[in-house]
Amino acid sequence: MPRFTKMELKIMSKDNKEAGKKKLPKQFSEPFRLDIIKRAVEAIFGNKRQKYGASLRAGKRHSVYISKKRRRFRGVYGHSRTRTPKKVVSRSGSMFNWVGAFAPNARGGHRAFPPKVEKNWDCKINTKEKRKAIRSALASVMNKELVIKRGHKVPDAYPFLIANDFELINKTKDFRSALLALGFKEELERASKKKIRAGKGKHRARPYKKAKGPLVIVSGKCDLLKSATNIAGIDVIDVKNVNAELLAPGCVPGRLTLLTEEAVNRIEKEGLFV
């Protein structure tokens, strides 16, 4: 992947008109490193993962006492029975109808090695390595080939920056109109689609899978942080809160990203991610 040293991008207004040009700072000239991006994203996944475990009595709620000795009540001696713990389903005198229970090899028995609540899923990553992953992901979003390979529908003029007046948009319909003017109609249609998840996950409060749409990076607290929340697939984030997961969801780099001019200025002036 080529370096983007001193790459100059156009600044586009809400009306899809060129409002100037801007040279990208050195943070966008990082060489592409998929291994570091993947490590940073997996660290974020691990730190967000909720701990879970099986109940201590799961599969152990049955009375399964069976004697292995001669002439004992509820005994299996001389009956060619296995030593698997069994519960009584029905009986006739001293003759019992058994069914396996409790043991991991029995239906309804407890798991051999169930998940434990005390397991630690936290992941640590070096600060310099985390910043390097962000710089590498920032460079990848400027590569049109990677963005298209990820499945995004981009206009011919991509990549470009957006003007600062985008941060003043306080209505969802105005922001949608601005994106349509920039040529992201097909991208908005792609991000609005959802499909039913395969497997048991559809029964566990996550029935749908949704596509990731454009990421908009702003310079700070502004109206756009709220006005864009109702557009499917779009994320708007403060530049100081950018991480590798937002730039490369699922460890796949090249997310369609739009940065405001002031956000790039802040990256350069404050030396973010260096």
Explain what this protein looks like in three dimensions.
- By secondary structure, this protein is of the alpha/beta class.
- It has 2 domains: 8-49 and 123-270, Ribosomal Protein L4, Chain: A, CATH 3.40.1370.10; 52-120, no CATH class.
- Helix content is 26%, strand content 16%.
- It has 8 helices and 10 strands.
- Strands 2-1-5 form a 3-stranded mixed sheet, with no helix packed on it.
- Strand 8, helix 6 and strand 9 form a beta-alpha-beta unit.
- The longest helix has 15 residues, at 34-48.
- The protein is elongated and about 95 Å long.
Estimate the mean pLDDT confidence. 93
Low-pLDDT segments, ≥5 res: 1-5
- CATH fourth-tier homologous superfamily of the largest domain: Ribosomal protein L4/L1
Tell me which CATH architecture of the largest domain applies here.
Answer: 3-Layer(aba) Sandwich
Quote the distance from N terminus to C terminus. 20 Å
- Class of the largest domain in CATH? Alpha Beta
- What shape does the CA trace take? elongated
**Helicity level:** 25-40%
Beta-strand percent range: 15-25%
The total number of structural domains is 2
SS-based structural class? alpha/beta
The total count of helices amounts to: 8
Query: SSE string, helix = H, strand = E?
Result: EEHEEHHEHHEEEHEHEH
In CATH, the topology of the largest domain is named: Ribosomal Protein L4, Chain: A
Cross-sheet strand order for the largest sheet: 2-1-5
Q: What characterizes the major β-sheet? A: 3 strands, mixed
Number of strands: 10
